[in-house]
Amino acid sequence: MPDLVLVEREEPIAVVLLNRPQQLNALSDALMDELVTRLQELDRDDAVRCIVLGGSERVFAAGADIGELARSSAIELYYARRVERWDAIRNLWTPLLAAVSGYCLGGGCELALSCDLIVASETARFGQPETSLGIIPGAGGTQRLTRAVGKATAMDVILSGRLLSADEAHAAGLVARVVAREAWLDEAKRVAREIASKGPVATRLAKEAVNRAYESTLQLGLDYERRALYLSFASEDAKEGLTAFTEKRKPDFKGR
Asked: Which of 8, 18, 187, 243 ranks highest by number of CB atoms within 10 Å?
């Protein structure tokens, strides 16, 4: 059996690609288990400072494996803790960038939303079509999509099944950058290298602070930001970055 997830190391970044092309990268339990395992392995590797998660030019992921869902009872889904895999991905320390080309639907859209930012091909189409199956998004779609694009657009996408184009997703705040079709992966890797060139301690603290702003009140976010700032000053990277600036040279960050 071919690997369901392909990993390419291009230190200081890594590229992780979903690999169920015949099933349009449908997110089976086996694929999600393997994906979480590979991402957590990379997250523990200090040599990897940013991870790109992608599918293929045709499809990022078309959604959950409907066959598996149709065979599962509510109690089986509950005990399988299926949707908690998306939470595990959200909790990675290493910055995670989604490279989306083609269809990004249902659980696939929720997977992209679990990443820190999305670089989308001009061909990308985002949607949460679960209501057409008589169910609702259950891996964060009703919550993260609403926070990303606002109530009106989220209601439209989730209730009507409307797909957002790459440009619409960018205008709504779901996507960080839109690139040409042929550049979907190369541009994502370029952005990942930009992120990886920054101080690793500061990058992780900044990621946590932005997530705190996304998930809490302004005052709680500001309190967290100040504590994270002081912690960043305790790192060797901060001393190196500030010294390198005054000496007009490129910093050599060690992630400490």
From this structure: 18
168: annotated active-site residue: no
- What confidence tens digit (pLDDT) does each residue in 197-208 have? 999 999 999 999
The answer to whether residue 107 is catalytic is: yes
Tell me the one-letter amino acid at 65. Answer: D
Is 188 among the residues known to form the active site?
A: no
**Residues 52 and 192: beta-carbon distance below 8 Å:** yes
In the set 61, 62, 64, 166, the catalytic residue is 64
Is this structure's pTM higher than 0.85? yes
How do the residues of the chain divide into helix, strand and coil, expressed in percent and rounded to 5?
A: 50, 15, 30
Q: What are the residue ranges of helices labelled H in 150-217?
A: 151-155, 166-172, 184-196, 200-215
Query: From the candidates 106, 110, 139, 196, which is the catalytic residue?
Result: 110
Task: Indicate the residue type of 138.
Answer: G
d(CA 168, CA 48): 32
Cis-peptide into 21, omega within 30 deg: no
Known active-site residue 127: no
| Domains in the chain with CATH codes | 5-196 (3.90.226.10), 200-246 (1.10.12.10)
